[in-house]
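Lab notebook, bench 4. The sequencing result for the construct came back, and we need a structural model before the next group meeting so we can plan mutations. Quick request posted to the team channel:

Model the 3D structure of this chain.
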Amino acid sequence: MPSFLKQLNGLHKNSLSYYSHLIDHCLSLKSLSFVNILHAQVIKVGLNTHTFLGNRFLDVYFRFGTLCDALRVFDEITDKNIVSRNICLKGFCRFGEPERAQRVFDEMPERDVVSWNSMISGYVSCGCIDNAMGMFSKMQISGGRPSEYTFSIVMSAVSSASHGRQIHGGMIRKGLSLSNVVLGNSLIDMYARLGFMDYAFGVFLTMEEMDIISWNTLIWGCHRSGYEELAISQFVFMRSTEHSPDEFTISTVINVCCNLLDLGRGKQIIAFSFKVGFFSNSIVSSAAIDMFSKCNRLEDAVRLFQELSWLDPAVCNSMISSYARHGCVEDAVQLFVLTLRKNLRPTEFTLSSVLSSTSTFFPVEQGFQIHSWVIKLGFESDAIVACSLIDLYAKVGLINYAMKIFASMGVKDLISWNTMIMGLAHNSKVFETLDTFKELVSEGMPADTVTLAGVLLACNFGSFVDEGMSIFRSMEKEYGILPTEEHYTCIVDLLSRAGKLKEAMNIVEAMPYEPSSMTWESILRACAIQQDIKLTERVAQLMMKSEPQSSLPYLVLARAYEMRGRWESMIRVTKEMKHKGIKNVIGCSWIGIQKHVYTFKADQLQPHRGKDIYMILRLLFWEMEAEGYIDNITKWR
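Done. Here's the predicted structure in token form:
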């Protein structure tokens, strides 16, 4: 006789235990249809109003995700107890409906710690941190005693060190045993997440007992806070204890080596993971591929990827990102297509990597194709993917497409706003950039350094000197942002383009940074236009010191001397340039046609298929002339 039937043997067919065992069997089979049949039988025999069976069916329907059936069962229960209502609270929170859970909670005649925990965890899981903290405060005011689980939930949502220390102190005052491993791990995680590693180590060192999670949390905290060498040393110390590293430990340490660009130690960790059999874990494999790629060893990353006997979205995403990082766009796109053919659903990071690579090298048609896949896969509302699409269309000049995507986004974070502002600025949409910035401020979104860099760039392109200077001067006072080198460079360029060289030089002298070559370049070009020889000589000398290999100061100075007939000075500058081995940088441009990228250099007299290109240009000029677009045309000979 099957074990399940043996369990039912001797039970009365209409007893509560009989139906409870059948419900357990339905759960093990994961069969909603069996649950419905069983529920119908219970209704038939009149046991559906019984509290115990009602609670069992209520829990089952919430687990299977059938909200309507769960609510119908809840209404049928004659004597609802605290368990009935707690199941409802958990169910609503699982469905992402904390408002309905709150209504049930408010109507509860009595509450226990499970009720409070359900509401607090429900608000945390929905991202309503303030509501969760408010519920935690009400719990204590009403006399509820928080459990260890309550504190672990609250600690996962704390966003400031002062608040974290208050909760830590509250745990001590309430007499909770801080030797508890779960509480200790939660405290380490909280302090590490907030960047207070000294407090995290303090908790770790006072724990009477620790487990692998304790070590992993401490090592991850060191890595997250930028203490990479400390993370390595803790890993070495951990191996001297009775705790053995797991896949999470290994992946974290590989990421540490990746940040340190320490290929030697990274290879040792990878060899260890092979030895203990961790390399079949996708997190470990993905971390290893990322490390080789960031350490400029793409060939090793490719070899590692090809040797894997299995594929999953995480590993493919790492490899696609690696290809994109090294400019191997065709390989990135081909691997992306392969993942689709193998029914490996790409993540938002996969799509973002592919979109960012195609925006740089491939024709825009490729971007259109990937955009269609984004829609088919249902990622069009994802913020990361939407930002990548905005960036793609902005880079290829289709700024109207970018604006439509931005307008259709439901929730816009600061990265979305910054991507749109930068895209508009680079496409010389000056008024639109400023309007978007005003909209951001009116939405209450705090601007950051990238936001203001985009706005200043737009003012630069539009020659809006007054607006640019006003924003630049108010950065620290209104937005709490100290101007960076990028902001100074932009404002100096704006003033230089407007011919305000004196003001530009005043800002350069007041800069808390050493002026970059771009800053001197802006002033130098303006000097050449205004033909101020004394300032040209001064700025050229300063630029030669800051950027010894740049040819620009020599060329501008030689041109200035030539225009004034100072031939000896011109020859001296030219000879000095040759003596130092400085070569003029040759500009180039490229265009993608189908699967090929054609490059054109500035000093190239006959580009690839040059005769065909000139013939097509000649035909276009003739057609424009015939249509009346051009009155006087210089004939090509």
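The longest strand covers residues 588-593.
Will bring this to the meeting.
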